Amino acid sequence: MLKIGVLVSGGGTNLQAVIDAIEAGKINAEIVTVVSSKKDAYALERAKKYNIETLWISKKQFDSFEKYEDTLIEHFKSRNVGLIIFAGFMIVLSGRFTDAFKNKIINIHPSLIPSFCGSGFYGIKVHKAALEKGVKVTGATVHFVASGADTGPIIIQKAVEVKDGDTPEILQKRVMEQAEWIILPEAVDLFAKGKLVVENNIVRRVD
Ligand code: GRF
To answer: Is 109 a catalytic residue?
Structure first.
């Protein structure tokens, strides 16, 4: 069975969506470890409820970013993970990490990439920028992770309507409910079933 490692930084609602799908038998996989960049991330509490191993590994604990990344690489290798999910993980890792798990890392981003993505576009800032631009449709994207923020091959996207009177917080909630919590488990399921093939940076689904 596929072993999954998850990297988080915050509330962990996307982690919860994957846990729920596994618990419901919709994904044939096991989350074996959840690593947070923040000590008090609520995502860790969510994992503990399901007896999933939790760790806090902060880049501040190391004298170089390379050592931080090497520790993460060693940790996930030691747990034999076949997939790593960035579920609301706020740190951009370099090629050192992403090359160690090529096409085995997926990220959820709360916009339709290539809009509102890359350096500086994270968390609530993404939705603030979308509202400032006046887009009428936004959404979420699940993609494989390559070095560089939000750059890897796209797996699934789902559009979400922007409504009059939306605040960044209201829009963030709608994007989570109508897109993120649906497409992240979907992508994990496709990966677990071996249905995702990457060719020339394009993801193709095979049956
Ligand atoms: C989500 O919108 C995710 O896409 C973004 O940060 C938020 C974190 O949510 N990168 P959670 O920690 O999964 O609740």
So the answer is: yes
